[in-house]
Amino acid sequence: LTRVSKEKRVEFTIKAGSPEKLKSGCVVAGAYANGDLTAAARALDKACDGAIAAVLARGDLDDKAGSTLMLHDLAGIAAPRVLLVSLGKADELTDKTYRDAIGAAAKQLSGSVAGDASFCLAEAELPHRDLAWRLAQAAQILRDSTYRCDELKSKKEESKKGIKKLVFIVKGKDSESLEAAVLRGEAIAEGVALAKTLGNLPANVCTPGYLATTAKKLAKDHKIKVEVLERDDMEKLGMGSLLSVARGSHEPPKFIILNYKGGKAKDKPVVLVGKGVTFDTGGISLKPGEGMDEMKYDMCGAASVLGTFKAIARMELPINVVGLIPATENMPGGSATKPGDIVTSMSGQTIEVLNTDAEGRLILCDALTYAERFEPAAVVDVATLTGACIIALGNFTSGLLANDDELAAELLASGQAAGDKAWQLPLWDEYQDMLKSNFADIPNIGSKGAGTITAACFLARFTKAYKWAHLDIAGTAWKSGADKGATGRPVPLLTQFLIGRAGQ
Ligand code: BES
Ligand code: MN
Ligand code: ZN
User: Fold this and answer.
1) What is the DSSP letter of 115?
2) Side-chain-facing half-sphere of 164: CA atoms under 13 Å
């Protein structure tokens, strides 16, 4: 059950060339609404004596960005196929429409027998985004589009379709910075793939121990050090809050510490903390049965930390990063924590566990206290923390709360650039008054309302020693319904943030 399927990976190169002369299975070129052509499409059109413009004039390609039309055997064009992709109106091109167009092209290519492709879409110009950004996004989306999770299907779908080689066609000379951009896109997609697979694996496979093994494997293949603390180590450290969540489970909890040292020895690290609840039943405050299978995704924060480590290690980013993953199940059981129980956190603060289903903050708070020993430049925790975040922001946007506005702004911009957006909610002192316990220092739930904010307020009681931000990914870490599956978010946001921190 631990084997990882060998997915077919598309290989990328960058070249300059005239689209009409390219001898690949398929040339991919962009067209704007109202029959306007990109430079590549214009060159192709000229070579085939206006056949493309004629087809567009008949209206066969929809104006909406992401519409596609496959043309075959055009006279004067070396490639047997031309995939036209609509970019929408030229002056309305945005990050989103660009990404939509790339995504649509990727989908067509993965269902085609073309074998290899020449890709001209990155020439499309959009405000504030350079060619390196456009190539990195394209590489990431194209690589991500071939992700499959069929490890646990007894019969794998064998397909002759899909692209094995893809050449990005650029004007002028291929440069090192463009190659680096494509490598970055690929590295992010690989990190996303790891996070998706960990999220998608069921809780009887992806246990705390499995997360620890995955971290160790990552350390073996890359320049990463890993240490795994066991229950007695955590007891010695006084992690009473974390351990109170693990009490109901037979599966041993793990505390995973990753260390990537790509920067100078004296550089303070960024610490990433990921919630690793491998299954959240709610504990004694049991969740309703409907859709409970999706609580296998409650370790997606941890998965995104592991995915981000994979991405930054692959791109050999010059920065120091520490990863902390408190991992446990949240189960009811004879020795499980009961509502009203009071536990002592590693920080010394006592916590009244009024609801055992608010377990994420109970494991994160001890990890956040542990983070202090690294004298971090900044700490970012990532967690599928509150259903309230889905009510507030839906499924497109992660929630962001921080005790430092500069750090918050940095993360918001990273999310924008990565196409993995977050939105800030307030962490004002007024909300702290919603956390009051008659019997302990703090309760683990707030009074009614603002559930995402009061959860962050709880965490804020443990993060006073450093600059800290919290990402609530309850709405963005996975999709429900027919497309059920992990998204790998926020690996792109986190990796982009670290790229920025590394000064690159
Ligand atoms: N893992 C859940 C949050 C969650 C719920 C994420 C649904 C995605 C979808 C978390 O542990 C939890 O149960 N939170 C409670 C907190 C409440 C008891 C204060 C919630 O949001 O209902
Ligand atoms: Mn819960
Ligand atoms: Zn949970």
Assistant:
1) -
2) 8
Q: Peptide bond preceding 490: is omega within 30 degrees of 0, i.e. cis?
A: yes
Smallest Cα–Cα separation from 112: which of 148, 160, 156? Answer: 160
Token pair, residue 405, equals 């506005």
**Dihedral class, residue 115 (left if φ above 0, else alpha if ψ from -120 to 50, else beta):** left
Q: Where are the alpha helices (DSSP H) in 356-490?
A: 360-371, 387-393, 405-418, 429-432, 451-460
Structure token pair of residue 440: 């302990």
Average of per-residue pLDDT across 385-404: 98
Residue-wise over 261-279: b if at least 16 C-beta within 10 A, else e?
A: bbbeeeeebbbbbbbbbbb
Tokens of 448: 């009614």
DSSP conformational letter for 200: H
pLDDT tens per residue across span 318-370: 999 999 999 999 999 999 999 999 999 999 999 999 999 999 999 999 999 99
100 contact partners, CB below 8 Å, separation of at least 6: 65, 66
Task: Output the DSSP codes for 348-384.
Answer: S-EEEES-TT--HHHHHHHHHHHHGGG--SEEEEEE-
For the whole prediction, is pTM greater than 0.90? yes
Ligand 1 pocket test, candidate residues 386, 391, 442, 459, most atoms within 8 A of CB: 386
The first and second tokens of residue 180, run together, are 């680096």
**Which pLDDT score is estimated for 6?**
54
In angstroms, what CA-CA distances link 259 with 199, 269, 298, 321, 328?
Answer: 22, 9, 23, 6, 21
* Model pLDDT for residues 160-169, shown as the tens digit of each residue: 899 999 999 9
Residue nearest to atom 3 of ligand 1 (CA): 386
Contact 38 CB / ligand 1 (< 6 Å): no
Q: Is 461 a catalytic residue?
A: no
Known catalytic membership, residue 314: no
* Centroid of ligand 3 to alpha carbon of 382 (angstroms): 12
> How far, in Å, is the centroid of ligand 3 from the Cα of 452?
13
pLDDT score recorded for residue 4: 47
Q: Is the CB of 388 under 6 A from ligand 1?
A: yes
The atom of ligand 1 lying closest to the CA of 451 is 19
The finding on whether 283 has its CB within 6 A of some atom of ligand 1 is no
* pLDDT for residue 9 is more than 90: no
Show Cβ contacts of residue 307 under 8 Å, excluding neighbours closer than 6 positions. 191, 192, 193, 194, 195, 198, 488, 491
Neighbours of 128 (CB within 10 A): 8
The residues, ordered by sequence, that sit 6+ positions from 454 with a Cβ below 8 Å of its Cβ are 431, 434, 435, 445, 446, 447
Closest CA to 148 of 309, 9, 323, 295: 9
